[in-house]
Design a protein that fits this description.
Elements: E1 3-7, E2 13-17, E3 20-24, E4 45-47, H1 53-56, H2 59-66, E5 69-73, H3 74-82, E6 86-90, E7 95-98, E8 101-107, E9 124-130, E10 133-137, H4 147-151, E11 157-161, H5 170-180, E12 184-188, H6 200-210, E13 215-216, E14 224-227
Parallel strand pairs: 3-4, 4-5, 5-6, 10-11, 11-12, 12-13
Antiparallel strand pairs: 1-2, 1-14, 2-3, 7-8, 8-9, 9-10
The protein binds nickel (II) ion and manganese (II) ion.
């Protein structure tokens, strides 16, 4: 089963599976590095990690245009349903099998409010089981030791933030890799704005030295990685 991931910059991913295309945290309008516009992307499902504008982003517009089902926590799913979207709500620790595979919400140490300040539930990450592959998208979070438990699931690919300031920086992302032990790691949530500037190549070199069993793949916005 071929799984193709495309990074649209920041924390936005398109994941094409044989049974549907997922879009994660579609922050495209207002994202200075996004290689596509919100009206150019396709999705069957949209996963939203938390309510901040750089993650909820264009979810409602894309979901209404494409008919995609929004998968998120109770509060965000309710918000999107109120805006006319098809939704499914989950909460942390809970999982459900969808046509493309299983989604489990994982903890994330962060905030989560809507752009207008209203409460948007707890932030989350995602553990995806797509065929035989396990993908962990940590979303916005600081380092936490329970990443070890997520690693025990056997992670093929982890997307982790390295931008610092709002999330883990490179040093804690390296510690996260030691806990998760993914086969492949792709850094995200960096270089979107000056505040999040990081040297991903230097980070990759530090991981290669400290955790040689994990391969870091550095993508540019718009580039893809095929998980085989
Ligand atoms: Ni955030
Ligand atoms: Mn963010």
């Amino acid at each position: 089963m071929a799984i193709k991931l495309t990074w649209y910059g920041h924390a936005c991913w398109s994941i094409e599976t044989p049974n549907g295309t997922l879009l994660i945290d579609p922050f495209l309008s207002g994202n200075p590095v996004a290689p596509v516009k919100a009206d150019q992307v396709n999705a069957d499902f949209i996963l939203v990690s938390h309510g901040h504008g750089d993650h909820l982003g264009d979810t409602v517009d894309i979901a209404k245009r494409t008919g995609a089902e929004v998968i998120s926590n109770f509060e965000i799913a309710g918000y999107c349903e109120g805006h006319g979207c098809k939704v499914h709500d989950l909460h942390i620790g809970g999982s459900k099998v969808f046509p493309f595979g299983r989604v489990k919400l994982t903890i994330a140490h962060h905030g989560s409010s809507f752009p207008d300040g209203r409460y948007a539930g707890n932030p989350s990450g995602f553990l995806l089981t797509l065929g035989k592959k396990k993908i962990y998208d940590a979303a916005d979070t600081g380092l936490f030791y329970d990443m070890k438990l997520i690693g025990e699931e056997g992670i093929d690919l982890a997307m982790l933030p390295i931008g610092d300031n709002y999330t883990m920086g490179p040093e804690d992302a390296l510690r996260a890799i030691k806990l998760i032990k993914p086969k492949v790691m792709i850094p995200m949530h960096y270089n979107t704005f000056d505040l999040l500037k990081q040297d991903a190549k230097a980070f990759a070199a530090s991981v290669k030295k400290a955790v040689p069993t994990t391969k870091v793949v550095v993508l540019q916005p718009g580039e893809s990685y095929e998980l085989k």
